[in-house]
């Protein structure tokens, strides 16, 4: 009798384990274009790979990033894919890759992301907020953000004084930096910041080439506008999970997948940046580039002191910058 009870108990436990493993994991995916967007398509490839790591993924498309975040907070999703600017609340280390001037080229960004997702940094991927555990299970690049202007007469930061600049309301760094250059910050959301630019409500906006065609930025810069051909920051997207809802070791396997796919992602980004017509690109002199790099550095250090950016990531980004450009003026300076 005891043997029968033991056998039945074992079978029930095995059955429970099988059920748990086979249960779908809901993942909210923010993409302005929904299922037709690049981010959602990448998530589909990731979900297919995740089957090999013991998870059955159910992707939930969300075209409103705030809704995706709220669904995650409410437990409607077990994971969420969204921009690092909003995901910074869950992990400041990873969320600080998007720091002003932190990764001024795709090559530097690739080094920084690869380092961040390395197994040695696994502890930094974990966070505990109000008793809830979170883990960064991936970082995807969306490309450098460039400043677009409706009028090419705004051909310097100095001429931005008094101009209206659309900023994302939940990113304090943007608001502070816009105020530092004397421009007027117009609080917006990721769902409408480019629309405000296109319809003339604001004079300037920052966005990656990734958004140029989908959000129709060409409407805002035609016929008299342009784009400063100078990257202000690197835009990334973070994949945040509740680790207790996924199989053991899932997070690192997922991070390894994102690293493996970085070359593919950056090839796409380079292609999108090259597709913006040359007639709209406003190139800066070497002197102006250095001046703006210094301005961004001062802003970045200020944001770090304010607690917006993570000091450890600032060190990582500086090492990445100086490994690519050893002659850069900042490489001999301290402070980061």
Question: How would you describe this protein?
Answer:
- By secondary structure, the protein is an alpha/beta fold.
- The protein folds into two domains: 159 residues, D-Maltodextrin-Binding Protein, domain 2 (3-Layer(aba) Sandwich), CATH 3.40.190; 135 residues, Periplasmic binding protein-like II (D-Maltodextrin-Binding Protein, domain 2).
- Strands 1, 2, 3, 4, 5, 6, 7, 8, 9, 10 and 11 form an eleven-stranded mixed beta sheet that branches.
- A hairpin with a 2-residue loop joins strand 4 and strand 5.
- Helix 6 packs across helix 13.
- It is globular and about 55 Å long.
- The N terminus is likely disordered.
In short:
Pfam families: AdeT1_2. It is built from 13 helices and 11 strands. It has 336 residues and is of the alpha/beta class.
Layout of helices and strands, plus pairs?
Blueprint: H1 2-22, E1 24-30, H2 38-50, E2 56-62, H3 65-73, E3 79-83, H4 84-87, H5 92-95, H6 106-116, E4 126-129, E5 132-149, E6 164-168, H7 172-180, E7 184-188, H8 193-198, E8 204-208, H9 217-221, E9 226-228, E10 233-241, H10 250-260, H11 262-274, E11 281-282, H12 286-305, H13 311-324
* Average pLDDT over all residues: 90
Helix content: 40-55%
Low-confidence stretches: 1-23
Main beta-sheet annotation:
11 strands, mixed
- Which topology of the largest domain does CATH recognise? D-Maltodextrin-Binding Protein, domain 2
Q: How many strands appear in the DSSP assignment? A: 11
Rough outline: globular
The CATH class of the largest domain is Alpha Beta
CATH superfamily descriptor of the largest domain: Bacterial extracellular solute-binding protein, family 7
Q: In sequence order, what are the helices and strands, one letter per element?
A: HEHEHEHHHEEEHEHEHEEHHEHH
Counted by DSSP, the helix tally is 13
Number of domains: 2
Distance between the termini: 69 Å
Structural class: alpha/beta
CATH architecture tag of the largest domain? 3-Layer(aba) Sandwich
Q: How much of the polypeptide forms β-strand, as a percent range?
A: 15-25%
- As a whole number of angstroms, the C-alpha radius of gyration is 22 Å
Pfam families: AdeT1_2 (PF19582)
InterPro entries: AdeT1/2, TRAP_DctP_sf
Keywords: Signal
Signal peptide: 1-22
